[in-house]
Structure formats: structure tokens, C-alpha cells
User: Fold these one by one.
Assistant:
Number 1:
Amino acid sequence: MKKGVIYSILAYFSWGFLPLYWRLFQSMPAWEILAHRIVWSLVFVAILVSAAKRWKQLKSVVPNLKSKVAVLLCSIFISCNWFLFIWAVNNGHVIETSLGYYMNPLISVVFAVIFLKERLSAGQWVAILLAGFGVLIMAIQYGTIPWVAISLAVSFALYGLAKKMAGLDVLLGLTWETIVVFPIAFGYLLYIQSAGSATVSSLPSYSIVLLLLSGAATALPLFWFAQAAKLLPLSMVGFIQYIAPTTSLLLAIFVFHEPFTEPQLIAFSFIWLALIIYSLVTFKKSRAAKVVNQAA
């Protein structure tokens, strides 16, 4: 249990502090940062797969068309999510990224109903409605839908759904996801280099080193999360996950000095209340299922 909590905290604090990391490359276009992230993620996971001697297992984990399609969808959704997050961080929308990841568990529940035919309890429906009110308040304040937050929440929820369809372990799954999009990312980097529009060479040497480490910054939190999921009850992992958007929100307000208005506070309050209700209901259901399993 103690190890699981440590792994979980490491994963979510890492994700929470990612805005600080991507801000180091603010002078680069988001597409270029994304391409580097994909390329160096593949390099990093390839080293891990080699160290674990698991290359022979790679082909066998996608034995049929369904698993191949699921991996393709995972690659598309996570790449979209990465791009949106990088763009949002470097264009002053960190508060919206925080809102997006607060919303993500609730969007995932909605997708479970739509695609997996799961049934929701009354408490879960109340949580979703409250979250909807929060988004509506943000929309009224901005005069437009908070598309960054919603796009991040939806893309990551779709990634989670495709991940569930694929059923791959973390290391081999991430390897396949990066293999699928690697040719596009690498081709794009070659193109902008030949066109003379690449900006990486203008970075200071320490920033280039940090960019090369973006693969580790991407993969390590996923591995820590996977270890935590093995060692902790799902309800506890679900509660700890709010460390990440809370950290990002605090960074946005106190480090990046993004304005946090009264309507935003009201909107976030609806989201937070929704998450409290959702977490309590999920914890209660988890406890009830555990009692039933013990009785059986």
C-alpha cells in the first residue's frame, strides 16, 4: 500500500508540474515540440523494452484486427491530447488544462455509459449534471465553450476507452502507440529541418538536453501510474489523481499569473463538488463490491 501511494503521488505530481516543463520550449511551435516528444518517447521505451528483453512479445500483443485498430486509436487520441496540452500551456491556457483534467473522470463515466453500456447510480448522474453546470458558467463567462478543457477531457477519455479495448500492458502499449505515429513525427522533423524552419537549433544547450529527455518525462509517469494501479484500490488511485490538475491550477495562478476570476471560481466549485460526489459514490461502490466478493 505504501509503495502504491508513493508511485501514485510521483505520477500525478509529475503530470501536474508538466506545464513548467513545456514552458521551457515556449519559443517552439507546438507541432515541433509534439514531434520531438513522440520521437524521444519511442527512443526511451525502446531502451526499456530492450532492457526487459520483451521485443519478442511486441508482435504477439496485437494478434487481431480489433487490437490493431485499438492501438491506432490510442495513438491518434493521445497524440491529439499531447498537442492540445502543449499548445494550451504555451498560449496561456493552463487554467483550462486544469479544468479539463478535473472533468476527465466524469467524461470517462459518460463514455462508459455510451460505449460500454454501464449503468450509473443517482449520485453519478448528479455529479455529471453539476459538472455540466460548471462548464455552462465558463461558457457564459467566456462567451464561448471552453473548448481547450473539453477537448483535453474528451481526447484523454477516448484514449482511456481505446486503451481498455486494446488491453495491452503499459510498456508494450506505449511502444506500439509511439511506433504508429513515429514515421509522421520523424518525417515532419526532417521536413522542417530541410525547409529551414526548425527552431530546435536556436535553443540553448540545456534546453536541447531537456527536449531529448521528453521521452522519459512522458513515459516515467505512465509506469509509476501502472505500478500504483497494481498496488492500490482503484478508488484510492481515483482520489489521488486530483493532485495533477490541482498542481496545474496553482501553477497557473501563482507562477504563470493567469487571471482567475470569480465566475471561474464558481465554475470550478461546481466541478469540485461534482468530483467529491463522484469520488464518494465510487468509493462506496468499491467497498460494496469488495464485501460481496469476500462473501462469495
Note: The CA atoms of residues 127 and 210 lie 40 Å apart.
Number 2:
Amino acid sequence: MFVFVCAGCDAELTTPLSEVCLPVHAHQTYGNGTQLAVLMESGTFAVDPDPWGPPWRRWDELEPGEAEARGIHAPVHALSYGPSGATVIAPGDTRGTRLIPGRSGGFCCGLDGRDGLNLACEACGLPVATRIDDCSLWQAVWLAPDAVCRRLVDGDDPAPFSWEQLAQQGQRTPPFEPIATWGGRLGSSHYWSWSPVWEAAAGRALAHVLVASEGRPVKVPGGLTADVFQRALDALLPAGPPVRHAVLAGPGLPAAEAGADILLVPVHPRTGRTWTPEGPAAAAYAVPLPLGVWLWLAFPRPLVPIPASGVLPEGVLRDDPLPPRPMSLFRADRGTFRHTMARLPAARSPWLRAILEGVTQDMCAGLF
């Protein structure tokens, strides 16, 4: 367990926290005027290895080779020249901070961080963090790596779960959820939608699957996995043989199918490590998925209405009304897809560069 302290005066700025891996949706922008939840679970923190925040430099301002030296292999709108190693926590886990007057820039409903650090240490006044709570952004506080220090504190921090424990006890992320909107003339409301977390997870995974495809068509398992990936793969990749096969693989599943070229595998929520198979399957391309998303795909639990009298037991689905579902087909998150693809060296290949350019120009006919 750690607390973060001010680098200027050593005052404590957080409650004791335990480290987890950075959520795939950490920098996602979702919808328009939507209310997103808190990014981090209370009592946890994650570190972003990439530079984050201002100052920014536009792509056309970069010198030849400058982007690749920073791990960017395809054009992006702008490149962050802020410090790397920013730490993200839940806003409720901050202590001893105050908002900085004049740095409260936001688009419409809250703070979006456009003015840089907007939280200062209450004890000495040093700017230490950026609070984000605007609409369409995940609520979070980003601690500046050069303004805070991490200090080990007493307290038990249990060992990470094994893969077998995660397969049995891991928290599943539902693919659908109600999305709340800010109140307007008609008041606040919500609509039933695909989960933003799923859309971000699919955006990252889709970039990896395209790289693994080597420009050949890819077939994924049927059901929900096909709903999430197959439409985009069919539109972005050429048709016809030979076909590459992607399968779900991980703890609690039978050994990967013989001849599978691509494995959809879970990422450990604590360590950030990707599950790795043994034997011949280890040569397949491993595509990372957040554990909660992977668990739902690998071990689906359909809620089938069954007769019941009295109080409905937990887990029983009413057949009236029917369970809500999204009104649209699944779309991967475009921003996460581009962010991931730009950081994969394979993005330098002409055919992948052409896909990225198409996503920028016409959003691939509603795929994103």
C-alpha cells in the first residue's frame, strides 16, 4: 500500500492505495453530454507509462523520426510532451488539495483538464494534479509525476489472484448498461447502450487483431464475440481464403483449438500481464482483453426466464418486460483503436496505414 505526498512539502495527498493496471478506457471520450462514472475503484491507483497532458505538438510540427523515437508509428492529431508516469486515482481518494482559481477550463459540464494542473497542495500551494469530471469523460484525478512522491505505508496488500482464482471469482463486465445524460429542458434521462468499457476494449483488441491478420480475413467465434468483432473485420479486411482463425483462450477454458492463429486472452487486472498459453499455442498472436470483458465472452451466462412464485430469486430474469438491449449494432471505440494502432510498429505498413486513413476520413461506414 502506498500514499502519495507533495514533492514540495511532504504533505499527504491521498489515502492508502494499492496499484492495479491502467484501465483500457482511461483516456476514452464517450458520446456527447453523457455522465460517465469514476474511472478507478476506490483504494486503487494506476500509472500511465505514456506522456499525458499539455504541452501538445501537432503532427505537422514534428521533425522526421521524432514521433517514432517516442513510440508513435502512425499519424496522430497531436503528440503529448507532458511528463510520463502520471498516476490516476479516484477523486474521492484525494486529501489535502484545493482547486486552483483560473485553471477550471471545461467544455460544458465540468473540468476537462485543458488548462493543465488544476489541483494544488493545500499546505504549500504547489500544483500537483489534474481533476477531470466533464461530461463524456471518466471522472478521475491525475497526479503529476514530477509533483508527487510515492511512499510505502503499513498495511496488508494481498498477493494478486492466480489466473485460476480470477476465472472463478473475477468480476464480470456486462456488455450493456444504462448511460445517463445531463439534464436539459426535459430533465435528466438515460438510455440503454453497449458498455463504454466494452467499446474501448474492442477498440484496442481490434487493432491487435488487424495486425495479427497480416492482411488476411479473420473469423472469430459466433455469438457475442462475433457481434463485437466480425462486422468490423469483414469490412476492414479482404474477403476470400486463406482465413485466419481467432479463438478465446485463457484460464478455465480447454486448450486452444489446433491451428488457431489468434488468441483472445485476458489481462490480469492487478499486474497488467497478459495470459500466456503453453505448448504450440504459445506461437499464436495474443490479443489482450480486460478480464471482465473476457470472462463474459468466455463463460456466458444467459439469463433465461423461468417460472417462479412469490419473490423472484436472485439471478432470475422477469419475462415482462423483456430485457433491454441497445438500439444499434456494436461499434468499437475509434479513439482507443487509433491510440493503440499508432503505438504498434506494424502500423508503418501501407495496408494498415490505409485503414487508419479511412477511419479518419469516413469512420468506416459506422463501424466506430
Note: The chain is about 20% helix and 25% strand.
Number 3:
Amino acid sequence: MATESSLGRSGGEVASGRTYDAIGEYLSFLSVEKGASPLTVRSYACDLRDYESFLARRGADCLSASCDDVLAFEGDLLERGYAPSSRERHVSAVKGFHRFMVREGLSLADPSIGVVLPKVPLRLPDVLSIDAVNRVLDQDMRADEIGLRDRAILEVLYGCGLRVSELVGMDRGDVFFDEGFVRVRGKGSKERIAPLGGMAAQILARYLDEARPVLARRSPGDAAMFLNARGSRISRQSVHAIVARWGQAAGIRGLHPHTLRHSFATHMLEGGADLRTIQEILGHSDIATTQIYTHVSRIHMREEYLACHPRAKRRPKM
């Protein structure tokens, strides 16, 4: 951070001090006013510090940066081997920061205004077949509170289409069995409701009645829905490990919690749910994000056709 002495030196050093403060203010803006998650704020902080270091090597700073500097930064990311998605995030962070600088009166012009975000190739999400999901969820687990907790975690992730951060953030008061829904705190601290029924509701009710009271003995005041063995709120890392472990046991290597969310959306679409309903359940702000599952569904449909139709792979006789 800039000190008093550094602010009293040459113009470049003054600018450098102001730049650091502006980045901090922008990160606070993202966190407090925009409701960005701590993970997003940390990622943007790393991206902007990277940008600031790059500009310093060119004898510039964020206050004096030009369009050529921003384009050169994008080119530098490419040379360093960053994937398109990572380059897009870096450039998006830079563009958002410069917009903020103009809005706050720290800059007169936005040097990134004409810079186009790197095009990210369409990457279809990993999706399990219904049979594969059943293999994961129906396997025998430990006959104790840990086994019942793990089963409830898997059922709720798939049954409600939750992100792992949403699952670990759930409290006991967020489930409404009579009404058939759970309250979810999604990205940007936005609340929504997700349907709860079937196996997910049954296993979650058993977990709350039989397993959670045992886990909560060491920390009876914790409001968290899912607890670790010490009675505290379970972590994202623990949920990742639980999903991967039971995926491995079912013959699926590297199973990720988000794969269960993708599978939920795809299976809902294949079962006849409309995109708007799926969008609302998943908490997508833009339906374009939800439309990716139509691509997945079409690919799955073609694979099923090629695998099952008796004449799908026949070639005509010449």
C-alpha cells in the first residue's frame, strides 16, 4: 500500500499509490455493492494485480493506461499460456475496473472500452446418465451419522440442482418440507427457492432426525444444515471430497459436485421441463446460460439414437 512518503515523490509514484487505492475500492465495490462472492473478489484481485504489474513493466499504470496497453496485456496472457476462459476473466476484470475508475472520477476515459473479450469456445458441461446418477446415489454407505449425512448431501445436490457453495451455506431453517422447497442463497447473495421432493426430501428428513443431532453434540448452537464430524458447518472442500469418494466407489473417477447440478438440469430438460423453469431453479440471471443444456440434450439424444436404433449405423449397399 502507498505510504505518505511515496505519495510525496514523483508523479509516477503518486499515480501508483492512487492506483492501488482504486483497486482496493473497486474490490470493496464488488463485495459490498455488487454482492460478489469472496472467491470472485479474490480472483479479480489477483487478475488486477497481475495487470498492474504488467503495466509497471511497460512504464505505465492504471491511471495512464491506453487501449494499446490493455490489448498488450491480453496478448501477454496468451503468450503465458492462459486458457481462453482465464483470459476472458482477466480482461473482464480489467474492463470492469476501468469502468469503475471513470464512474468514480479517477479517470477521464476508459482505455478498455473498445477491447473485445476473448472468445471462449463452447464447452459442454459434464453430465452423467440417469443410470450413472442412480449408481452413485443408491450404493450402500456407512450405517452411521456420517453415511446418512453423505447420502443427504448427494441427494440434495442432485435433487435440487444446487451449487456446492449453496449447499454448504444452507441453515436448518432453510428447508420447508410441508411446502416442498428449500431456500437457497446463490451468487451475489441472491435468495431463491428450489423444489424439494422425492428421495432428496426423504433422505434429508432422515438426516435431520437421526444424524444431525449426533453430529451437533459438539456444537449445539451451530445453525448450519450440514455438519462435519466436529459439529461445525461442513466446508466446500469436504463436500468435494465426499462427492469424489462416492463417485469413485460407483466407478466414476473425478466426480465433481457441479456435475450433479449439470445432470439435474439436463435430466429435467429431457423429462419435459421448460428452460424458464430450469433457469429459475438453477438461479441463472440470463437464460442464455441455461440454454447450454439444450446442446447437451441434443448430443445425448443423438448418442442414444446411434446406440439404440437398429439401422442407425447401417450403410447402404452400393
Note: The radius of gyration is 24 Å.
Number 4:
Amino acid sequence: MISFLACKKEIENLDQLKIEKINSLANRYLELNRFSGVILVAQGNTIIYKNNFGLADYENKIPFSNKTSFKIGEISELIIADIIRKMAIKGKIQLSDNITKYIPEIKSDLNINDVLNDKSNSVVASLGKSESNDIDYNSLGLLIEKISEKKIQENIEEYSNELALENTYFKKLDPYLAVGYLYHNYQGNGLELQKLPISNSENTSSKNGIKSTANDLIKIISSNDTNNLEIEGYLDNDGFSYSLYNSSKNKISIIVLSNRRHPVAKEISNSINSILNNKEYRIPLARKQFDIDEKLLNDYSGSYSLNEGMNLEVFVENDSLFVMMGQNKVHLKPQSENQFYMEQMDASMRFLKDTNNVVNEVVLLDGFLDGNKIKRIKK
């Protein structure tokens, strides 16, 4: 009991060392252009850490603020579920009713509560996942509109007023909406930011439609009175990615919202959770030249089997390591003694050794901490 209380007190009073670790972690992802946005950690309703990294608009050098909104993708389902539950409390709908009672064109044997809870008490677990029951995410937004006889935007405005949300909405012109970006070699000039056009979906309560802020999401989590939550992802046609973690055990919530499409928000959230619990975590290596003993390069040369019809040939030339990727000869620059990055793409190769200290496989890293392992078939 004493140990538990000590741990709880430590989280409530986040110490400087943990703050510095979270900042260093986020700044590394920012430096790699995989993340730009806001990180918020709360215990219950109390925010114990919040910081912004990068800019909301790089062309106009506009910083993030408390009002900066992000497209939140599947996190939107929390809002939709909460609105439906509040309708039930007010007696406007019965959660035990079959959804076809309100939307006859949907053929399903599920009642509304089944959809919201998915029999595992997870608010978002089954929305849009059941082909057999023909329930998709927009169906729930349509359900709200039919019951309330109001557009989804009006429902969300009422919901926002009820929870005193600062900037959560479905569809409107908003000067505080962050600009979404990709980071890739889209012009053949190497890695660079590409601004994506601002778009709004016409679909009812579409994932691309609802926007919110990190501060508002904490209020929404509290309003839902949910159990464990792990929601993460990115928007296909927009430069946004996101992660939301909530633990019912220690009441810790971690929110990562990014105006980069690269989906490392969950990776960041996992590392932050490890920092909070004094566990080991990994930080991505910087894409900077590492001084390596050139004699080690020969250890990594050889053929690696990508699949039955394709091998990757790694070889040493002029005291440097290269890999043939199709017809392209790609220079591998050392980040560490066993990891090498590719300058024209956000990718790396990490060479692994067996118990005999011989390289037997390589991990292909496509902008993440982990990737696919490929066996070495010939030295």
C-alpha cells in the first residue's frame, strides 16, 4: 500500500527528470519530421504535463496554442458515443433498441448498446469494424441527426457548450486549425515538407470532419467515464495523426496530436507511458553521420532475402556501405555501429548479430522504431 501511494504521488507531481525525458523524446521525433504537435498527460482531470513542439503552420510560422485544433480521426467516436448516451439519459432513445428501428435501411441484429460497447466495454472497439452487421461510423452520426432532428454540427455545438469545450466542432472555417503536412521525397529533391490542402468532408460525422484540442479531449474522456482506451491512427488524405491512451487503473491519460501524417503518435505515447512508470524505452536515432570503424562494414555485406523473387544486395564500396534496391544504388550512412540511414527517404537498416556475433539478419525501418526482419542468405 505504501509503495502504491508513493507511485501515485510521484505521477501527480511529475518530476523534472521525467519532464526532460518527455521533451527530449518529442524533440527527437520533431527533428526527424515524424511529429509536430501537442503532447498532454493528465491524471484524472489534472494536467500534469503539456507541451507543444513545432508549428501549426510552417509557411506562416504560426505556433501552436491552447485553441489549436487537430483532425482527430477515430477519436471522434468518443464524442459520437457520448452524445448518444446523453440522449439516452434524457429519454430520447433506448440503448436496448435495435438500430434498424431508427435507420430502417441498415440491416443489423445489433442494438445501440451493443454497438457502443462491443461486449468488451470499449467505446470504440467495433464502430465500423463489422461487415456482417452493416454498421459503419457515419451510421451513428445519422442516428444522432434522426433522433435530434438537427445536423451533426448543431449537436456537437450543444455538446461542446455542455462540457465547456474550447474548440471542438464538426465543420466550420477555423483560423486555429493546424495545417497538415507530409514529409517525403515528393519532388525528387530529397526529404521535405509538403503542405496538404485544407479539406472538409461532407459525410455525416466523418472521421475527417470532427476537430478538437488536447485540452478538450481530457474533458471528453472524463465525460465518457470510460475504462481503458487505446486509439491511434492517421488520416489517409490529410496530414494528421493521433493517439489517445487512458488507463482506468491509475487514471492516466496520454494524448498526442500531430499535424504530420506519419503515424508515430502511438510509438510516442508508449514511450511516455514507460517514462511515467520508470521503465525502459527507446528513442529513435538521429539521422546524423556516426563515426564508425570502417572494418565493421564488411560484416554487413551480403545478400538478404526480401522474398522468394527479390534479394537485397548490401556491399562495401570506397569505404562506404551501399544497398541495391531494384536498379537504385542507395548509400547507407551510419547512425550507430549497426544502423544505417538512407538520405533520400526516411528509412534505415539495422543489422543484427546472432549468438556467435555474426550478422544473420537486417531490420528494415520505414520511419519507425521497429520493422520487418530479413534473413541474410549469403555473405
Note: The first helix runs from residue 2 to 12.
